[in-house]
Structures are given as structure tokens and as C-alpha cells.
Amino acid sequence: MLKKERQSFILRQVNLHNKVLSVDLSQQMDVSEDTIRRDLNEMAEQGKLIKVHGGALSKSFHLSIASDNVYALSSKKHIAMKASRLIKDGMFVLTTGGTTIIELAKALPPELSATFITVSLPAAYEYIHHPNIEVIFLGDRISKSSQISIGGSVVSRIKGIRADLCFLGINAIDVQHGITDNDWEVVEVKKAMIESSERVVSLAIAEKLDTAQRIKVCDITRISTLITELEPGDRVLKPYRDTGIEIL
Questions:
Q1: How do beta strands 215-218 and 178-181 pair?
Q2: Lower Cβ count inside 10 Å, N or C end of the chain?
Q3: pLDDT of the residue at 68
Q4: Is residue 136 within 8 Å of 117, Cβ to Cβ?
Q5: pTM score of the predicted model
Q6: On the CB side of 105, how many CA atoms lie within 13 Å of its CA?
Q7: Is residue 61 within 8 Å of 84, Cβ to Cβ?
Q8: Rounded to an integer, what distance in angstroms lies between the CA atom of residue 47 and that of residue 41?
Q9: Where are the beta strands (DSSP E) in the chain?
């Protein structure tokens, strides 16, 4: 694989999953970790990503909250509009983090009156500008890579909530492997949110379908609803429909 091809693959992976590990990229492209490290250093110098120990982070995710430089932004806006229609007055809604969740926060109708409970700093920033919703931010130690609160006290507080809806921003989803992620502490927060919610709604651009990361969040059957930018009848979604999940 040529350097240009490698770096194009790396950039897509880091934008798609927010965080990538050098060891995973090495295995996926069958090249040495030294080659990957050189690519990441070069791409960081070019301003394409953020180099961190053991891998890299998406620069588009870690720019300012108000930035429109977001990967697949139009698809995420479309998903957010679909998701916003599920929220009714009086609901208690749990949300994780991620750029699609931020677009959901922006898409909430101004007349909506509900309570939003979040661990995401960027999402909380958007919620507080809404005229009629109550906002509860669950704080603790902040994960720099995901920009959400993590830790035992957050998980404990989530377990004391009974939410009507949980909107789950996801890293990867696959029928066989379920929902997976690459950060152990983020996974623990997501697991707690799933267990504390009557209905779990996964938000995922189509590029995340049929992908998997190292750490399991939950089985596919634990999800009530899957929302992508695709039409519900799209053939790509058939394996997910066959599991009994509602597709929007």
C-alpha cells in the first residue's frame, strides 16, 4: 500500500471512530507500527489529526464546539432530525457524547419541554441554550478523547436514574459483535446508561455499520431503535431489521 493510500485510510478511520490505535492500524494495513507512527507524525504536522500516545484523535471532533468542520455533517444532521421526533414533553432523556449527539441537541424544537441528562460537555453547552428543557450534567473526571465524564461516581449516579430514552452515540456497530468501542471507561458509562433506560436509540452514520472495535458495549438486541441517514428499507440495513430492531 502506498503512503498516500495508507494516510487516506488512516484519516477515514480516525474521522469515523474519533480515536485510532497504532497497533490496530498496523494490523489492518499489514505494515509495521513504525510505519504507522511516521504516518501519524506527518499527518499531525499537516494538521490532519491529533497525535497522541499509541494512536491519534480526530481533529474535526476536537476543534471548537461551534465548528462546522465535522465529518459527515449532513448525514449527522439528518439523523438528528429523525431522532428529535422521538422526544415528547415530560420525558427524561439520557445522552452520551459525540458529534451526532451535538447535532441532536441543536435540532431540538424550541417548544419541547423535557429533562436532558448528559455526561457530554459539548452537548450540555448546546442544551443550556434551549429555552424550555432542564439540563442535568453528570460531572467527574473528563475523558479528553471523548469529551465526556467518566469514572465510578458518574456510573453510580447513572444507575440511580430511570430514563425514558437513551440516545447512544456509537463508535461501531455490527450484527454479530453488537455495539463496540475503543475506550474502557467510556464503555462503562454507556453500559450504565443502557441499563438505566426504558428505550435505547443508537445513532450511527452508515459508514459505522458492520464495523467493530475492541471493547463490547452491548449485544445488538439490547438496542430498541437504530437511526441512520439511510431510508429504513435500504438493503444495507436488512441484517439489522432481521434482528427485530426498529429502523428509522
A1: antiparallel
A2: N
A3: 65
A4: yes
A5: 0.90
A6: 30
A7: no
A8: 10
A9: 19-21, 49-52, 55-58, 92-95, 115-118, 134-137, 141-143, 148-150, 163-169, 172-174, 178-181, 197-203, 215-218, 225-227, 246-247
